[in-house]
Specification:
Largest sheet: 7 strands, mixed
Low-confidence stretches: none
Strand content: 15-25%
Helix content: 40-55%
Distance between the termini: 31 Å
Strand order of the largest sheet: 1-9-8-2-5-3-4
Structural class: alpha/beta
Order of helices and strands: HHHHHHEHEHEHEHEEEHEEH
Number of helices: 12
Mean pLDDT: 92
Shape: globular
Length: 290
Amino acid sequence: MLTRAALAVIWLLHFLPLPLLAPLGRACGALIHALAGERRRVALANLRLCFPERAEADLRRLARRHFQSLGRSLVEHGLLWWSGRARLRRLIRVEGEEHWRALAGRPVIWLAPHFVGLDMGGTRIITEWRGVSVYSRQKDPVFDRLLMRGRTRFVTPELYSRQDGIRPVVRAMRKGLPLYYLPDMDLGERDSIFVPFFGVPAATVTGLSRIARLARAVVVPAVTRQLPGGQGYELRFYPPWEGFPGANVEEDTRRMNAFIEERVREMPEQYYWVHKRFKTRPPGEPPVYQ
């Protein structure tokens, strides 16, 4: 019942212009920051690990800004689910499209780290281009149906669950569908190795390297930035990675984390700090989240 009521509010809000919707979203994020004690503690624990050189007061300010960006992205999801194609194209501008267009005929991986604008970038893609992606089913069936509708209402991608494995994804890529790939969640020890993220050993899925090798694919990072005020979002495609995959999986995974670190330093308030990125610890290491 609560889910339906919240979605009804988000549906009503999506009619507002972005210059009005954005400050409402930031206010919602400030409220979440005040009320969601556990997620606030997770965000602060992550920030302390990744930015040990910063003062505690600075980290707390950064956490508040993060929740404001997160709240804005949550409220603006109504745009993804119910706005028309033309409005979404105006709200989410695209830069660097030529970087993957020049690879016509080759399998492509769009590397999409977990910034708050991630879903905006994915939705902007399906207003124009068809691709392939991997999804996780949501426990709430209403929310699951809504997410699926949002991912398929323009250009229908090929979607596979994590349980389907890599091979159907690789087959789709070989047919010419770029993979929108989300690499930077702690999914446990399975298919992961410990490589540094901001100097901290982080259990990191090695899928980017493995899929690139199997599909002989080129990696083109696709990072979505939330722009200030009511300016919307920017989906930026970066130049293709040279020499990837490299000598081994660990080297490739380190390279991926290093790239994500660089983008985080550019917009630290927009990385998804409420995720328990360091939940899985190397043997003998103490837990991060108490």
